[in-house]
Amino acid sequence: MKDKVRIVLATHNAGKRREWVELLAGLEVDVVLPEEIGISSEVEETGTTYRENAFLKAHALSDASGLPALADDSGLEVDALDGAPGIRSARFHPGSDEVRYLALLKALEGVPAEVRGARFRCVAALVLPDGREFATEGVCEGRIDTAASGDGGFGYDPVFYVPEAGKTMAELTAAEKNRISHRARAAQAMRPILAAELDA
After folding, report:
1. Which domains does the chain have, with CATH numbers?
2. Which pLDDT tens digit goes with each residue over 87-105?
3. Marked catalytic residue, from 73, 82, 97, 130
């Protein structure tokens, strides 16, 4: 049996790592966090797009580790806020995930359901030790609910209602989320690239 290909994932977030491990199940890859191999993943996200930020992180980690590096950058785009918070989703409001999504609900107070459309967008970037790079994108359409519901997921999941599922992202099972989320769709597109480029 061949050895698994080690890939370093640009995150400290255990929830995100768990999602990626599940999304790449069946491939011969071992997804490790930067701290597990003694490197830092602190990269300033100075890009103006998800793609730029994802590649900033992936290049930094591949350079530091000599391993293939996988990064993603994602955000919530709310129509009534002209696409905000977008690439600033994690910095929309200082504090915890709950503080951020409550601030979002406050910003949308009084906005009717028909104009609360939103989408999660994710760009996944793979950088190989020889410098080659690949990117995929996934989008999940929905709307911002008027109250939080569900205790799964992370980030804005409790207030993001997914019409095709009839519930918020935080109410989805892991299996459901791994079929329809923005990260799932980016990962599904990345799987054949990893399989081909890494013989995984």
Report:
1. 5-198 (3.90.950.10)
2. 999 888 888 999 999 999 9
3. 73
